[in-house]
Each structure stands twice: as C-alpha cells, then as structure tokens.
Amino acid sequence: MIFSLAWRNIWRNKARSLVIMISIALGLFAGVAVLALYEGMLKGRIRTVIDEETGHIQIHHPLFSDERESGYYIPNPDAVLKTAAQVPEIEQINIRTLANGMLSTSTGTAGVQVTGIDTLSEFRFSLLKQKIKEGTGFKPGKSYQAIIGQKLARKMKLETGSKMVLMFNDTGNNLVSCAFRISAIYQSSNARLDEKLVYTDRRELAELLGMPGQIQEIALKTKEDNQAEAAVSQLKSLLPGLKVESWKEISPETDFLAKTVDSYSNILIVIIMVALAFGILNTMLMAIMERSREIGMIAALGMSRFRIFSLVLMETVFLSMAGVPVGILLGWGTAAYFNKNGLDLSGMGEEMMSSFGFKTMIYPEFPAEKLFSVLSIVVVTTLISSLIPAFKAINMKPVENLKA
Amino acid sequence: MKTSKPDSATAAKSDVVIDTHNISRVYNPDTIPVYAIRNVHLHIKRGEFTALVGPSGSGKTTLLNLIGGLDKPDQGRILINGTEITALSAGELIEFRLYNIGFVFQSFNLIPVLTAGENAEFIMLLQGKSKKERDARMKQLFREIDMEDKMDRRPGELSGGQQQRVAVARALASKPQFILADEPTANLDSKSASNLLDIMDKMNREENITFIFSTHDQRVIERARRVITLVDGEVASDTNVIDTSAPH
After folding, report:
1. Structural domain containing residue A84
2. One domain for residues A228 and A272
3. Same domain, A284 and A371
4. Residues A44 and A105 in one domain
5. pTM above 0.80, yes or no
6. Contacting residues of B for A304, CB less than 8 Å apart
7. Closest CB to A300 among B91, B103, B114
8. Which ipTM score applies to this complex?
9. Is A270 found in the same domain as A395?
10. A348-404 tens-digit pLDDT
11. Rounded CA gap, B233 and B226, in Å?
C-alpha cells in the first residue's frame, strides 16, 4: 500500500517530478560520461606508456636509475637477455644504450637524453616508425644519423638533413662530441619526451661512449598487461644483481594517475549528487509542505510515524531512481559511441594534451566496474536527502495540520 | 420531539464509550491563558447521536480533538471504552485511534491519488486486514452509501456530497467504537447534507454506531438525539432529545 501510494504521489505534480528526474538523469549521465572519458584517457595514457615509452618491464644496472651514467651498464648482457627470454610471459625484448648529453647547434644548446637503438627492434617495440613525421628513419649505409622530436626540432630550428653536435661523457669521463645528421623527425603523444629524446644507432653510440657491445637498458613486453607483475617477480629472482622494474615503478606518475583517478571520479560523482540532493530535498520539502493537511489526516486516522517516514523515503527513492536508468543508459550509449569512433580533443589544444602525455584522440570506456560505487553514491545521497522531509513529515501534528 | 436532561448516573458503566473527567485545555498557559476547554465532564454512551454545538471559538473542535486523541488535555482524564487515552504515549495513541476511532472531517480529506474504494479501505489496509475481508466490507459500505458504481472514481471525479459519503465509509470501515465528525455538512449543499445525514442516521439506528458531531448546522442539530452546547469552553447545556420518530 505504501509502495503504491508513494508511486502515485510522485506523479501528483508531473512537471515538478519530471524536472527532478531529468536533472538526476542528466547529472548521472554527465558523471558517467566524465568517468568514461577519464577511463579512456587513463587507459590511453597507460597504453602510451607501455606501448611507446617504457614497455612493461625494464632492466638496468642497480645504480643506473639514480645517476643515469653510461658507466652503469648491464654486465654480461647476452646472459641477461637469454634469461629474460626464458620467462614465459615475455613477448618482446628491446635493448638500448643510453647517455645524457648536450645537443648543440649554431642557434643554441639543449640537454638531451641520447638513446642508442637497433632500428628494426625499436620500430617494432616503441612504435617509433609510426611517430615519424618527416623522413623515414636511419638511411641505410650512412653513419651518425639521429632522429629527434618535433618539439626539439622547432626549439633548435632543426629539420631533416640538418647537422647537430651531440656531446657526452664517455666511460672514461672524457668529453666526447660528434656531429650527427638528422634523418627523421618524430612526434609522439608526450611532448616532454619529444623535447628530450634523441635516437641514434646503438652500436655507434656505444663506441662513442667507449663501451662497445654494452647496453644500459633492456625493455620487455609481456603478452598481457596483467602478466607484468608476475614476470617482474620471476626476473627479480633470476637476476638478483640487476634492477628489474615494472612500468608502474618506471613511470610512477602514471601509476599515481591510475590510483587517483578512481578517487577523483568518486569525488566528481559525489559533487554532482550533492548538487542534485538539494534539488531532491527542495522538491520533497515542497511536496510535504503542500500535503501537510493530508499528512495530518493520515496521522489522525492512525498511520504510524514509521509508515509515514517510509512513505516519504519511498517517494524520494522513486523520484531519484526513476532518472537513474535513463542517466546510465545515456552515459553507456555515449561512451559506446565514442569508444567506437573516438573523441577528438585536439580542439582543446594538442600541445597542452601532449604536454601531459595524453593523445588527443580519446576512446572513452563505460566504467562498468565503477557502476556499483556510482549507484551506492546515488542511493546514499537519496536516502540522506530524504531524511529532512521524512522527519518533517513525522513531526507534523495532526491537530495543527488539519487546520491548515 | 421532547427534551430531557441526560441521567449519566444511571447509565450502565459498560455502555459508556467516552468518559471525560474535568478536562481542560489551556493555550498560552505561561502568558495570557486562554481556556479552549474548561472542566468538561461528559459521558457518551454507545449508540448516541450527539451534536456538539456552540458559537465559533466555543471549543467544539478542541473537544473533538481531545476525545479523538489528537490533542492532550492540560488537566483531567479521558477514558475511551475504559482505556485512559490521556495516559497513552504518542505511538500508543496512534494505534488506539487506528482501531477505535473513526474521523469525518469538514473538508472530506480524501487522498486524491487513491480511488474512492482505496480511500475507504485505507484504514483496513493500515490494520493489515486481508483483501477478502476488505473487499467484503467495501462492497457492504458502498452499497450503504449508495455509491457501488463509483468505487473506482478518484475524489476529483466526485461531488462534495459523494466525497463526504466516502469519508463516512472510510470512518466506518474498521468498525470503530465511535465516529467523530467535525462540521461534516459545512461544505455540502442541502440535498447532499440531507443525504449524508440520512446515511449516518441509518447506521446509528441500525448498527448502533456512536456519532459525535461538532456543528453549526441546524439540520444536524435537528437530527441529533443529544445536544451538548459549549460556551467559552464550558458545557452550557446538555440535552437529550426524545425522538418520537424512533421505531422503539
């Protein structure tokens, strides 16, 4: 009876109820859409980190990460590579020679991170080939070529074919400089890396550093993302003298982003729902005040305070919940559409997005795993916003309200 | 019709449904006290058809509210069928009203989103009566108020007189000890008022249901078999009207 009465009561003032239902649906849609966008951006960022920057796992000399000095190379790299290849989860292996250096041209200088690569392996591992905007990579038969980022090229006024000088310390701590010709210019989705990373041939770099055949970095990819931690554990036990890190440790800001985005999402939903709670509260208070005589009458007839409380509570729940499926469906539909077609945010500023390491094409994902927490927030908000009208209703005195 | 003073002393104790002992209701007791009811001492027996009359502000509605357990006296005791309702807690009073008292209000006070039938069975639903029991009672009551064909109508689709008849059916649905009706004919035209009084009179005579009205309406006063006049919250007169039209 209370169920039926509550449902009919919310339709007494159709326009008012519809306004609050639509508000809740739109609020929830906005919340779900933003969550989907966050999820898409986050997953896109994680994919970029894994696929284009770090891989799932990296192996270094234990002191390399602190100092980033070329002298801290991986001893006996062939044996390490053989060990890594034996871990069943590992799918791809890429080796790099690294050096911190200074790029110098007639227009100025810039601090860079020189990365010596095996072209084919790097092209496959970090999708470098797809990022090249000018040129085709290292030209066959030519020595001392470099691939630089677009941002660095613009900053240093360089283009393909230009010459530049790279300076760095070799393993004997001698200053080494060498002229390189720019064979290609790349653009990734991470502007900070584009300004810093210079690719050269690995063997040439190792020779310039005075450590031919040595490498500072082994980057690995597992078959599945969720195999990374297990592979790290295995490699740590197999290679006790080396530093084995997962992408979360190598790119802690991305891991932090992944961890905090959940909290931000929940905070966002709470903010939306708090705003809506005032709407619900206002609507229910108006409904209760308008029906004060009727509430006084049903109390006079013998309807208990508990039942009156339940009636108001149920009306609030119906009012709020009616908009929930619509909001979620709209959110799901929008997320599904843009997940398929992509959402181009280049209008927001490609450079700004890339400076934070995000691609401009986002593929929002409906946050199905967050649906429970979203619904919990909605239910709690609804119940809280129903308390004031419900207490107001049960504290109405029949004698006074029947006079109204 | 003849009139005589009611002899409460000789009333059989078990016949007394409402028993008020020197009840008073005072507003603004700490500033300028206003006595809405002062030392009212009444016995109302089962089957009485009583009108509370008096000028506006004489305390009729206040007395009905006190008897109906909607308000508490500042002084005195009220016993309904032997239960001292002035000693009951708020929750106990709500339950007491649900099972013992029927109310008919001046402005009908039907729930607009429920049909006439649903309004009338509302109290039975609160009492947890079965559907079978409710259906049987509704059928009987709507036959008595001559509205069998209008059970599915919403209050907004009924005339004032029809709405008040549904309100009477609602008050009677749970077979209460007595029915309190506050100015039940005030918002009705002559024909509807007469029709309503006929129904209540018939139920009083045939089913021995106790009715207490507060009223200004001469038509109600003429039908009443006991008339209690209140002036400034006190009982100014209490008269039994000997009904010569009664079949016994």
Report:
1. 55-250
2. no
3. yes
4. no
5. no
6. 91, 94-95, 126
7. B103
8. 0.88
9. yes
10. 777 777 777 777 888 998 878 888 888 888 888 888 989 999 999 999 888 888 776
11. 18
